[in-house]
Known about the structure:
By secondary structure, the chain is of the alpha+beta class. The chain contains 13 helices and ten strands. Helices cover 39% and strands 20% of the residues. The relative contact order is 0.09.
Amino acid sequence: MSRIAATVSSGAAVTERAEEILDQLGTLIPTEGALLSYVTPSTRERHALANDGYAQQMVDVLNGADFQAEVIEPFGLRRPGQPMRDRDLPVDPLSLRCVAEHFRPAGMVSGLLSALVTSDGRYVGFLDLAVLDAHHPSDEACAVVGYVGPALANVVDPLQSARWLASTLPGGCSAFGLLDGDRIVSLHGEPRDEFLDPRVSVARTVDRMLDRGSRTAAFLWPRAGGGWFACRGFRCPDHLVVVVVGELDRPHHLTTRELEVLTHLVAGCSNADIAAQLWLSVRTAKAHVEHILEKLEVPTRAAAAGRAIQEGLILPPLDEERPGCVRLMRHLDLA
Length: 335
């Protein structure tokens, strides 16, 4: 248990830690096959994180929908944190199609399943072990697996990397994860209630902007009572979207109108285009551009646009619920 605990807390990559954990469990239980899988937050599909001894066909069976419905949901998830062996099942194992059609023909006579559930109740993956000896796994081995179950859940949990990322944020920032476009989970700090509501436009705006293929998005959002929220969205490899929010009073002393003009500059608009979009004279639009260059301390429009993208000094696409936000051109790339 101490060796597994050391592996869990090491700085190695997730896959390396998962493989080492299976190796350690192999010294406790003589396994013929061992699989540690995780559940993607967005699709709820299961994928192998580490595999030792299972053929790919068996891995596909274990990560398939039938095994999920026939074994994990009725038996594993009813006893979160408590490993279950074939002989512990309340039914004849051979009555389960996956056992009768796949495990027994392969000569595997016993096995252990542990559904991995986090402390906040999220099902994030499972551990499956198969052995050729009916005397294994022993009661003591099951106790060890049950003891390290929460640590294993942390290893396979895709949100752990997001939480680690969020933990590096400076004080005053908050972060939340956006799952499936409509599920929100707090990651760091104390996000305002308005950001934790999946119907709120900030979350929908981030999701919509990232749908265009970019992996990052940064923009300003008006704050009640004045000032702005600086919002940044990051799409992680497992499709989880992390949104970081901080507060700004008046970035670079830019006015709201100047931020609108700057947003159009990023979109590649000329002074005439900006004037037409914002119902200004061309002369007024030109004056706003000059003020923006002066405040950002840059020599050209292109430099101003680059700084705006880098620092997120733009307003998001028009939202029907927030008419004060300007519409970005379709070709705007925030990557």
